[in-house]
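INFO batch 0412 | record 1 of 1 | parsing
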Amino acid sequence: MRALARGYGESMVSGGKSRRISNLAALALAVLASAPARAGDNDVVPYWASLRGREVNMHVGPGEDYRTTFRYHRENLPMKVLRKMEGWRLVQDPDGSRGWMLARFLKPERGAIVIAPKGQGESLAEMRDGGDGNARLLWRLEPGVTGKLGDCASGWCKFEVDGHSGYVREDALWGTGAP
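INFO prediction complete | emitting tokens
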């Protein structure tokens, strides 16, 4: 199982040059911003969503004019959606950082990220072929691995990473349960 780096992307907080956007680029951004939101268009917040693409920006406020604070590089990274404002969503990432993302970069399919189970430091999570500790061990997953989350029952969740699927303990995943 391929383990990804612990970080999710790159911080954009340190100083930067002001951006100049041509009239054509500004028009393209306006057209894209007017596209209907597709991720979690329900009216109830909070809810879970996951990153749609491999490069998604988090902003200080709900608009392209607000400073970009972070750029994520993890498809399926789970996000807790806390608030909705027009085409923007206030989200919280697995580390607790909050910021705004365009709704079109979020998808309603649930994702999860492997975390070290409580009290077990940096230990690996086990992926098994059934939802119990006696099922055959398939893989060991490092903290930071992201994947698609399936149904959870009796403390185990169906989890798929790069075409490999099995069951992982619910307490070893962030993005499960009620948001």
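INFO post-check: The chain has one helix and 15 strands.
INFO record closed
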